[in-house]
Amino acid sequence: MNKLHSMSLLDNADFLKSVLDACSDGILISDDKGNVLYVNAAYESTTGLTREQMVGHNLKKLRDEEKLFNFAVSLLVLEQKKPASIIHEYITGKKALTTGNPIYREGGQGIVGVVCNTRDISSLINLRNELEITRKLLEKYSDELQQLRQQNMQQYEDFVYKSKAVADMLELASKAAQFDSSVLIQGESGVGKELLAKFIHQQSPRAEGPYIRVNCAAIPKELFESELFGYEQGSFTGASQKGKPGMFELANEGTILLDEVGELPLTVQSKLLRVLQEKEVFRLGAQKPTKLNVRVIAATNKDLALEVKKGNFREDLYFRLNVVPIIIPPLR
């Protein structure tokens, strides 16, 4: 019974018309003379052409005289007697792929009409265009990245090296340069800690600001505070009557390198910690602090973690300095 019912539905012209009307693709059916017999709602929506304009009219007349479109796949199918496809942009602005197939008489003798399937592919074309734009952007960014890498290689010309470890270290230093975080450079004497510190400064946004190097191992213990933090006039015997800015003030808006930071006395370490925390400095004899905007780089040939365990270096200061640790490999 169900099978018989299904067969009767297929023989029902109204049912078949309802099927075509329900299709999401546009459907146009014409006879062997190019006269339009049927279009569905999806065809109207995609092409912008109505049933009233199309049904009962000849495609050649609609194309050549009324200029409703400039190409008709159905006519091409009738002419070539085989399936044909085109991509066409309609007055709606939509781009569609239309495929026409011949309808043969029973037994395959001669064509009695053409059925055209029109599918809106605007979104696919837009996606293809977006992908093409993305591809071009990727090529552009790839070229720019290559240029930046070449520039970085030029920036590394002051360094003579062959090992990947040094190359990785320089890349880390280049990245660290872009931020204001404190950097702790560790390495044996003579491996280029000061050179690396200057490189970080030159690659940073502070490159136009001052770069001040303080050799902590060369300053007498009794002069540490006055050299680093400065002093006011008459603050101690022998002090300049004009006062003196310390190294931190001289480095304001730039970078200060605390070379051999492991040599700092514990008393100075506590005051240095305050400078890093509060971003201000008290000159000796001053009643109010001086605000600072300084990037701090520290360098040492000592194992500061070990010095912390020995009690020679403050743990809190170590963590303040060791935000970005960079270890320079030994030269040997």
Give a description of the structure.
- The relative contact order is 0.09.
- The chain has 2 domains: 2-121, Beta-Lactamase, CATH 3.30.450.20; 155-327, 3-Layer(aba) Sandwich (Rossmann fold).
- It is α/β, with parallel strands linked by helices and 332 residues long.
- It has 14 helices and 14 strands.
- The strands form 4 sheets. Strands 2-1-5-4-3 form a 5-stranded antiparallel sheet, with helices on both faces. Strands 7-10-13-6-14 form a 5-stranded parallel sheet.
- Helix 8 (164-176) crosses helix 9.
Provide tags for this entry.
20% strand, alpha/beta, 14 helices, Beta-Lactamase, five-stranded antiparallel β-sheet, Rossmann fold, single chain, 332 residues
Fold blueprint:
Layout: H1 2-10, H2 13-22, E1 26-31, E2 36-39, H3 41-47, H4 51-54, H5 59-64, H6 73-80, E3 84-89, E4 95-104, E5 111-120, H7 122-155, H8 164-176, E6 183-186, H9 193-203, E7 211-215, H10 224-229, E8 230-231, E9 244-245, H11 247-250, E10 255-259, H12 266-278, E11 280-281, E12 290-291, E13 295-300, H13 304-310, H14 315-321, E14 324-327
Parallel strand pairs: 6-13, 6-14, 7-10, 10-13
Antiparallel strand pairs: 1-2, 1-5, 3-4, 4-5, 8-9, 11-12
Helix pairs in contact: 8-9
